[in-house]
Amino acid sequence: MKVAVATLAIALGARCAAAAAPPVYPWQEAGNHVGQMVTIEGVVAAAHATGDTCVLEFAPDDARALRVVLIVPMFSSLPSKPERLYAGKRVRVSGLVRRFAGRPEMVLRSSSQIEVVDVSGPSAVPAPAPAEPRVAPSPPHAAEPPPAAEPPRAAEPPPRALSEEITRRLAGAAPCERARARWREAAGTAGELNTALGRCLESGSYRCRRESAALAPALTALEWAEQQVEEACR
Question: Which residues contact 23 (CB under 8 A, 6 or more apart)?
Fold first, then answer.
């Protein structure tokens, strides 16, 4: 119990250590808790960034559904495209539920207010590839002489735009390598946690919640590192 209290104090600060954790509700019940500090859980169906905010939608077509607004400048650890970090993920958000423009809303100003608890979202089943038409073999015919070889062409200098692109990529090699190093580190951590979860599942102990919970944020960190590679190495 002492270890749990100490961990909670580190995560939420000494001021909140003595406070009880807010209750957890599905996002469909957010409208029943306007004016309360609660934790809401659900799968983010859509996410989009506008200016200094990132809006998470649990039901984009429902004008009465909860909307979560992230104040991006207040977050010190968000990637350049935060909407890609949360779209399709199951998250828990903690804060004050208020009503804005007729719908419940929660505004987040700290990364401690949002947590990815499951990275498995709905995925589309790929359609089977169409069968290739069978072509009847052509009747045998006399062999044709091979085409004459073209004379070798003189090497042409690369276009100016291509040269400038190569120069730009070489100039950004250092940030690219740093981003790839961060990705390798995140991939190693995720791989170790994935192995630990696999061993727990194979043991059939029915007690793999800790391993599963540890893997979810590691996969989120891996996705963030992948975005940084895309930004630095393009």
Answer: 38, 39
Going by their DSSP bridges, the two strands 103-108 and 67-71 should be labelled as parallel
What kind and span of H or E run contains 93? strand 90-100
pLDDT single digits (tens) 182-205: 778 888 888 888 887 887 887 877
Q: Of 218, 224, 225, which Cα lies nearest the Cα of 180?
A: 225
Q: How many residues are given for the chain?
A: 234
Q: Which CATH architecture has domain 21-118?
A: Beta Barrel (2.40)
Q: How many CB atoms lie within 10 A of CB 211?
A: 17
pLDDT digits (tens, 9 = 90+) for 100-147: 988 999 999 988 899 998 765 443 334 444 555 555 555 555 555 656
